[in-house]
Amino acid sequence: MEWLLAGSKLQRCRMAFLEEVKGAGRILLLGEGHGRFLEELVRVNPAAQITCLDASAGMLREAKQRLAQSHRNFQVELTHADVFSWVPEACAYDLIVTHFFLDCFTEQQINGLVNKLSSCLKPSGKWLLADFCKPAKGLKRFRASAILWLMYRFFRMATQLPASQLASPDESLAANGFRLEKRLAFDWGLLHADLWALGMSSAR
Predict the structure, then answer these.
(1) Angstrom distance (rounded) from CA 134 to CA 38
(2) Reported pTM
(3) What is the tens place of the pLDDT at every residue in 119-145?
(4) Measured between alpha carbons, how far is 48 from 45 in angstroms, rounded to an integer?
(5) Distance between CA 199 and CA 147 in Å, rounded?
(6) CA torsion angle for 66, 67, 72, 74 (degrees, to 10)?
């Protein structure tokens, strides 16, 4: 469905800052799905210990098969769990990755998740995310609003998605001590990739 609706746009968005997280020792990857980003993450960080958590056992199987086909050696723990009930280890990870994941939840759920997950990052930790967004104004905003309206209506019917509209995690991330280091926009502003860091300088 991703290829049908968006081609390679979502994957380009996921990959935007991949080279900038080289050297991360322990990585928490949430809601990875089919494993296309995980495959590239292992390529760039072959020595990293990666915890890949997903609520779908089918998606985890697909990710495992993809990894097995492309990498002989990898240190990936595939965890089948609901992120709300999963208990993370405190100050354990160098990097959190949430690509097209937080858009599934309501603002209240996002606030709870960011607060919970920030505690499992090391003091110098980073948060890598890619997601949908609404541009500030004009034709870009009108186009994004129409696409998002259709998308949320479809996925709420097909998957019982908790969210009915897009909620931004920016305020919650900032409230938990994160600073936006970099942001890139794609597809007329409908997509964006972010690199956030704990206690570092503001976006450039």
Answers:
(1) 27
(2) 0.92
(3) 999 999 999 999 999 999 999 999 999
(4) 5
(5) 35
(6) 180
